[in-house]
């Protein structure tokens, strides 16, 4: 699927990310990631959606947060809930960071990037980290690259992963150290990683 098609699918179901049961999703993992630096500075939420829970968490730790999402509806809902936050309605594949960030999160988002562009996006985000900056993101814990498309959420959605060995190879090449790797939703192969810029 083209990223624009992903945007249309998420536009159709954006309201679902306002449901109360999602308020705690990923919070424990982000709190763990926050321990790897003292806090404060610039932060970026990639695939920020409309919920705002990571924005609130990061702000409580002294960060000034920006959001990035390809879904116009997600951005509209997010702006209504967080009018003080700068949001970019852009495709992360095309977006060019204008600064470095002390903390980047891409929770359940960059696995929607076309497989052919996944490595470039991962490298771009690693390069957008300031020295000592922390990056947390999710992928599927597979040994090799894979892509799929399904309609489990209703509209069709595309997923791709580089595979764990390739992912670790890339972050090391970008002067980042893997601080944590965890399969956090067994028996699913949902994997989150925390990397830090040297």
Automatic annotation (TrEMBL):
UniProt-listed Pfam families: Methyltransf_25
Domain Methyltransferase: 44-133
Recorded superkingdom: Bacteria
Record carries keyword Nucleotide-binding: no
Alphabetical keyword list: Methyltransferase, Transferase
Keyword Methyltransferase part of the UniProt annotation: yes
Single annotated GO MF: methyltransferase activity
InterPro entries found in the cross-reference section: Methyltransf_25, SAM-dependent_MTases_sf
Signal sequence coordinates: none
GO terms of biological process kind: methylation
Protein name per Swiss-Prot or TrEMBL: Methyltransferase type 11
Organism: Chthoniobacter flavus Ellin428
């Amino acid at each position: 699927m083209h990223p624009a098609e992903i945007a249309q699918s998420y536009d159709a179901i954006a309201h679902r990310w306002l449901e109360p049961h999602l308020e705690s999703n990923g919070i424990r993992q982000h709190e763990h990631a926050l321990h790897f630096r003292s806090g404060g500075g610039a932060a970026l939420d990639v695939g920020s959606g409309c919920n705002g829970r990571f924005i609130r968490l990061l702000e409580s730790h002294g960060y000034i947060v920006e959001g990035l999402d390809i879904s116009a509806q997600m951005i509209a809902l997010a702006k209504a809930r967080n009018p003080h936050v700068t949001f970019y309605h852009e495709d992360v594949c095309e977006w060019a960071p204008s600064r470095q960030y002390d903390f980047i999160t891409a929770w359940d988002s960059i696995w929607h990037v076309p497989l052919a562009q996944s490595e470039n996006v991962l490298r771009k985000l690693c390069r957008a980290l300031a020295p000592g900056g922390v990056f947390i993101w999710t992928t599927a814990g597979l040994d090799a690259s894979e892509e799929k498309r399904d309609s489990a959420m209703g509209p069709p959605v595309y997923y791709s992963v580089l595979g764990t060995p390739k992912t670790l190879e890339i972050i090391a090449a970008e002067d980042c150290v893997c601080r944590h790797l965890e399969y956090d939703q067994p028996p699913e192969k949902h994997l989150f990683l925390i990397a830090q810029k040297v």
